[in-house]
C-alpha cells in the first residue's frame, strides 16, 4: 500500500514551541492526538514569524476549508484551547481538525482523522492571517 504524499508544513518558531508543549501536556489523556501533533511538528519547516510564507495556517488565522468527503465548507479561526468557542467558529489546536490544519497552505489537502477516527480529506480554500494584535 502506498502512502499519499503529505503537503509541506510551515510553522512559526514560537508556535512550534507552544504547540509541542501542549501536545506533551495531553499525552496521557489524548495520546493519539498528541502523537499526531508531534509527528506534524517534526516534519514542518520552522520559520521566524516575519518569514512565514503567505497563505499558511498559523494560530489565530482565519481558515476556510472544505471536507472533500461531504462537500461541507467551514470557516474557522484556529486558536489555543483557552480561546476555543465552537459557536463563534474558534477551533482549538487540540482538536482533530485544528491539529490537521496547522501549518498547511492555501490549496493544500490532507487526509486526517475526525473525532471518531474516520479519515476525511480537508482542503484549504483560503487563509487570512491573524490580526496584528494577535501576533504579540
Automatic annotation (TrEMBL):
Keyword Protein biosynthesis: yes
Alphabetized Pfam families for the sequence: GreA_GreB
SUPFAM superfamilies linked: FKBP-like
Transcription elongation factor GreA/GreB C-terminal domain boundaries: 53-128
Domain of life: Bacteria
MF GO annotations: DNA binding; RNA polymerase binding; translation elongation factor activity
GO biological process, any: DNA-templated transcription elongation
Keyword Cell membrane: no
Keyword entries, A-Z: Elongation factor, Protein biosynthesis
PANTHER family reported in the protein's UniProt record: REGULATOR OF NUCLEOSIDE DIPHOSPHATE KINASE (PTHR30437:SF5), TRANSCRIPTION ELONGATION FACTOR GREA (PTHR30437)
Protein name from the UniProt record: Transcription elongation factor GreAB
Organism classification: Bacteria, Pseudomonadati, Pseudomonadota, Alphaproteobacteria, Sphingomonadales
Amino acid at each position: 500500500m502506498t502512502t499519499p504524499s503529505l503537503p509541506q508544513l510551515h510553522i512559526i518558531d514560537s508556535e512550534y514551541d507552544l504547540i509541542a508543549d501542549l501536545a506533551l501536556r495531553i499525552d496521557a489523556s489524548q495520546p493519539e492526538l498528541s502523537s499526531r501533533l508531534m509527528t506534524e511538528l517534526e516534519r514542518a519547516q520552522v520559520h521566524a514569524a516575519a518569514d512565514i510564507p503567505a497563505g499558511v495556517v498559523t494560530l489565530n488565522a482565519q481558515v476556510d476549508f472544505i471536507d472533500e468527503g461531504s462537500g461541507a465548507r467551514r470557516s474557522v479561526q484556529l486558536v489555543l484551547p483557552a480561546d476555543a468557542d465552537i459557536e463563534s467558529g474558534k477551533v482549538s489546536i487540540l482538536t482533530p481538525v485544528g491539529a490537521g490544519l496547522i501549518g498547511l497552505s492555501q490549496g493544500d489537502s490532507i487526509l486526517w482523522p475526525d473525532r471518531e477516527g474516520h479519515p476525511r480529506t480537508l482542503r484549504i480554500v483560503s487563509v487570512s492571517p491573524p490580526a496584528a494584535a494577535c501576533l504579540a
